[in-house]
């Protein structure tokens, strides 16, 4: 257990590499800065032993027969995507102005517009896939500002920068936990929109197949959608082209049945996306640990 001074020093040390890259590239154009951080993170995942082994452990659960060379191409692509995503979240206010880089499609957008017209709230579900903040950017530009559920970071430097970036994408930003859940319910009942990333391990959740493997999954989004008669729309911001363009796709709202069936429908939706473009999903989540 670290003492308080030692913990503070360790947080500085862990943040230093990212701070260095951001500082070194700060006078370059937005796209160049994004690609620079993406390149660094991609190289770390590919060549830094602990990161590579963690990626391998999770990735081979789903793709056990993929040759190592191909796995490492995916590893580097995943790292590049996550580095760019992190940079764009840190600079979310500017990212939100770059809508000329976005293409938008899918019938789920109409379902959200109908909910807004009726004065109802809505739940947008996604995962750590592509650039999920692109979804909120599109909605905010269309007058549907969307808050988000956020898991606080243990490192105070990451916490400060990430929270500021996420807040720039739309309000309110609600922490996980009891207080955040109560605020989330009030927001939805008042006609607010909220985005939830449903691909993180939830220890109290149900074991549902995700990429063909049972994973602890929260039913909260579906339960709220059913209780308050709200649309639950899967949406994805897919990184495209040169890595600085995005295809934002709103899938049809998930039919209201029961919370297990609805949550499984989302798991199947995201799984299909990942199987098609595995480099766009963040494999470091330890999604199946202890399941």
What are its keywords?
alpha/beta; two-stranded antiparallel ribbon; 2 domains; 291 residues; 9 strands; 7-stranded mixed β-sheet; 52% helix
User: Please, how many helices?
Assistant: 11
Number of domains: 2
Query: Which stretches of 5+ consecutive residues score pLDDT under 50?
Result: 6-16
Which structural class do the helices and strands define? alpha/beta
The helix/strand series, from N terminus to C terminus, equals HHHHHEHEHEHEHEEEHEEH
- Shape type: globular
End-to-end Cα distance, whole Å, is 27 Å
How helix-rich are the residues, as a percent range? 40-55%
Strand order of the largest sheet: 1-9-8-2-5-3-4
Rg, Å, rounded: 19 Å
The largest sheet is: 7 strands, mixed
Total DSSP E strands = 9
Q: What would the average pLDDT be, to the nearest integer?
A: 89
Fraction of residues in β-strands: 15-25%
Oligomer: single chain
Written description of the protein model:
A 7-stranded mixed beta sheet has the order 1-9-8-2-5-3-4, with helices on both faces. It has a two-stranded antiparallel sheet with strand order 6-7. The chain is globular and about 50 Å long. Residues 6-16 have low confidence and may be disordered. The longest helix has 23 residues, at 68-90. The protein has 2 domains: 4-93, no CATH class; 100-285, no CATH class. It has 11 helices and 9 strands. 52% of the residues lie in helices and 16% in strands. By secondary structure, the protein is an alpha/beta fold.
How is this fold's topology laid out?
Layout: H1 4-24, H2 30-47, H3 49-62, H4 68-90, H5 92-95, E1 102-105, H6 108-117, E2 122-126, H7 133-141, E3 146-150, H8 156-168, E4 173-175, H9 178-189, E5 193-197, E6 206-210, E7 213-217, H10 220-227, E8 232-240, E9 245-250, H11 259-276
Parallel strand pairs: 1-9, 2-5, 2-8, 3-4, 3-5
Antiparallel strand pairs: 6-7, 8-9
Helix pairs in contact: 2-3, 2-4, 4-8, 10-11
Main location: membrane
Pfam families: Lip_A_acyltrans (PF03279)
Keywords: Acyltransferase, Cell inner membrane, Cell membrane, Membrane, Transferase
């Amino acid at each position: 257990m670290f003492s308080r001074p030692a913990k503070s020093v360790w947080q500085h040390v862990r943040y230093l590499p990212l701070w260095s890259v951001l500082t070194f590239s700060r006078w370059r154009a937005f796209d160049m800065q994004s690609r620079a951080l993406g390149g660094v993170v991609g190289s770390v995942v590919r060549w830094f032993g602990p990161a590579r082994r963690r990626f391998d452990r999770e990735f081979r659960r789903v793709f056990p027969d993929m040759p190592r060379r191909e796995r490492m191409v995916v590893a580097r692509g995943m790292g590049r995507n996550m580095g760019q995503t992190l940079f764009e979240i840190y600079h979310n206010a500017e990212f939100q102005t770059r809508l000329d880089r976005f293409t938008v499609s899918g019938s789920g957008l109409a379902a959200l517009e109908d909910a807004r017209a009726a004065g109802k709230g809505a739940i947008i579900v996604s995962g750590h896939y592509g650039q999920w903040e692109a979804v909120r950017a599109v909605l905010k530009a269309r007058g549907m500002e969307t808050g988000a559920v956020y898991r606080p970071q243990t490192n105070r430097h990451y916490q400060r920068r990430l929270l500021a970036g996420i807040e720039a994408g739309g309000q309110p930003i609600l922490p996980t936990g009891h207080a955040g859940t109560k605020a989330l319910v009030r927001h939805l009942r008042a006609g607010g929109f909220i985005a939830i990333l449903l691909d993180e391990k939830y220890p109290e959740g149900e074991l549902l197949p995700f990429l063909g493997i049972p994973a602890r999954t929260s039913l909260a989004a579906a339960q709220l959608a059913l209780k308050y008669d709200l649309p639950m729309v899967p949406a994805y911001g897919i990184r495209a082209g040169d890595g600085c363009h995005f295809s934002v796709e709103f899938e049809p709202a998930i039919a209201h049945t029961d919370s297990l069936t609805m949550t499984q429908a989302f798991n199947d939706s995201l799984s299909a996306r990942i199987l098609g473009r595995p480099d766009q999903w963040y494999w470091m989540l330890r999604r199946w640990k202890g399941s």
